[in-house]
Amino acid sequence: MRLPACLPVLLLVGTVLLPVLAGLAGTLLPAFGHLPALGAAGWSLDPWRQLLATPGLGTALRLTLTSGFGATALSLFSVALFCAAFHDRPLFRRVQLWLAPLLATPHLAMGVGFLALAAPSGLLARLLAPLLGLDRPPDLATVNDPWGLALLLGLALKEAPWLLLMSLAALNQTPAARLMATARLLGQPAPLAWLKVVFPLVYRQIRLPVHAVLAYSLGTVEMALLLGPGNPPPLAVLPVRWFLDRDLAMTFPAAAAAILLLALTLAAMALWEGVAALAGRAGRHWAGSGATSGAIAVRLGALLLPVLLLLAVGSLGAVLLWSVAGPWRFPDLWPRRLDLGTWAAQREGLLALAGATLRVALPATLLALALAGAALEAVARHGRAAWPWLLGLSYLPLLLPQTGFLFGLQVLLLQLGLDGGLPAVLWAHLVFVLPHVLLVLAAPWAALDPRLARSAAALGAGPLRVLCTVKLPVLLRPLLAAAAVGVAVSVGQYLATLFAGGGRFATLTTEALALSSGGDRRVLGVFATLQAAIPLACYALVLLLPRWVWRRRAGLRAV
User: How distant, in Å, are the alpha carbons of 52, 374, 483 from that of 472?
Assistant: First the structure.
């Protein structure tokens, strides 16, 4: 019996969409007082009344919106201005070399590093201490500030490299050189020409990643716990606190808070699209006016991205230094000694947690690669018969706050008897790994020269042999890159592990966040460093393995 052409696409979308929809339903019902497992079989608005009566709710909403919109706008503007000013400069190529370690670093590790850098006793304060005459840490809320500025900046450090990578991929599919040449012939300075004729095409292709950044920035929990204020916290923290409360009655306002965050995220995306449409109209008017002033301002603004990248690299250095620091009094710029004592003391626990982390990350990534590859191959072979438009639904987890459906997913797992086990955690991680893997693989798979498959078929190779001996070897580098992204996404999952594991499945991420609330900074540095080292090793494999495999194939080394 011949399988339908759309089956791989349906399997991929179902793997992601079914738990998300079930999770949304499982969160929506308790938000209106219906949860028979807790003896509430009716319907009520009491959860919403309790939520609206929460002290500081307005401040939590303000913090969420300012940090979410601020981080997204800062990341996008810094990338756009940098590309406009330096697209034809050596710095543009040099910056790309720093993307791999920054992309590999999970959000939590970057947040811990920024904490080590920007805290009142952090590296920045120690650098400025001699200039300001400080002999003790300044009495300033440089992190966990009530305005959420540290949270905003910490998010931008992680999201700006991601948007730069997406912009580079979009540039490869844009006739930028021809457009720039035409604009320069019309007398436009290079930075303004790029913004006027290239950026609109690039933004059209990175719209989904921008919305994903906005959704994550609005709904992040781990970064908010690390860098945001504690009382009141951003809105995303409230439902997690209440879901984990000993009083099970707090489940109802927690579900209402999760639905409120979901509605806020959808409204924020609609608002962003509205503002983007207005900005597009203004941009077309500006481009049509032929104005040539402002190039200097663009070049100055373009320095913002290098500053963010330097802070991000400094954060990684700071967390590594924390992990090997001995006695370190303020305002000393360097610890009195460096040693591996903390690593040695935590060795057994680290090995167990690293093993647990990899037991989820590796299978989730392999499953994601298999599902994404099968779906993309079905689309390449069968075109419209494989329903390629369905693939867009698999990106839904990137556009929704995790608290909006993970609690409902936990309820579903409880009903299936899977809560707390490895299969449950693996499935929850796969929901987030699969969209990222698909996002990385989609463009290279679509750009693969169809003449390669036709030539192999003409020589008598069947479809499976063409895939295994022609397509997959040529796509080795994109496949490894997608695998590295998948491992990085899985290693960084906090809420998915917490809810699906029922608090009984510990990974490096869950333990690092538990330590951040008051543990030894050196121990926290060790956990965050190892958490970042695992994805970084995968990214190193992406760079080295294709060169070794194709060392005698010059054409394939560049693929």
Answer: 54, 11, 13
Angle between helix axes 149-171 and 107-118 (nearest 10 degrees) is 130
Q: What is the pLDDT of residues 341-366, one digit of tens each?
A: 889 888 888 899 999 999 999 999 99
Give how far Cα 320 sits from Cα of 113, 116, 324, Å.
Answer: 8, 10, 7
Distance (Å, rounded) from C-alpha 511 to C-alpha 508? Answer: 5
Position 352, amino acid: A
Q: What is the pLDDT of residue 557?
A: 54
Cβ neighbourhood burial of 148 (10 Å; 0-12, 13-18, 19+): buried
60-321 homologous superfamily: MetI-like (1.10.3720.10)
Nearest to 394, CA basis, from 4, 22, 14: 14
Cβ contacts of 199 within 8 Å, gap of 6 or more:
80, 83, 84
Contacts of 522 (CB under 8 A, 6+ apart): 322, 323, 325, 342
The Cα-based distances of 112 to 43, 108, 352, 442, 517 in angstroms read: 42, 6, 21, 32, 11
Token duo for residue 209: 């990643």
Say which residue the tokens 């009655």 belong to: 249
Residue 338 has pLDDT above 60, yes or no: yes
Distance CA 407, CA 401 (A): 11
Q: Which residues pair with 338 in a beta bridge?
A: 325
In sequence order, which residues have a C-beta less than 8 Å from that of residue 464 and are 6 or more positions away? Answer: none
Question: CA gyration radius for the chain?
Answer: 24
Q: Are 471 and 395 in contact (CB under 8 A)?
A: no
Is the pLDDT assigned to residue 2 strictly greater than 60?
A: no
Q: How far apart are CA 460 and CA 358, in angstroms?
A: 40
pTM of the model: 0.92
Identify the three-state secondary structure at position 546. helix
How do residues 269-297 score in pLDDT, each as one tens digit? 999 999 999 999 998 888 888 778 888 88
Residue with the bigger pLDDT between 285 and 453: it is 285
Mutual angle of helices 521-549 and 508-515, in 10-degree steps: 150
Are the C-beta atoms of 305 and 95 separated by less than 8 Å?
A: yes
**What's residue 448's pLDDT?**
81
Is the pLDDT reported for residue 1 higher than 60?
no
Q: pLDDT band for position 207 (50/70/90)? A: very high
CATH 1.10.287.770 correct for 1-30+340-559: no
Secondary structure element (H or E) that encloses residue 382, with its range: helix 347-382
CATH 1.10.3720.10 domain range(s) in the chain: 1-30+340-559, 60-321
- pLDDT category at 451 given cuts 50, 70, 90 is confident
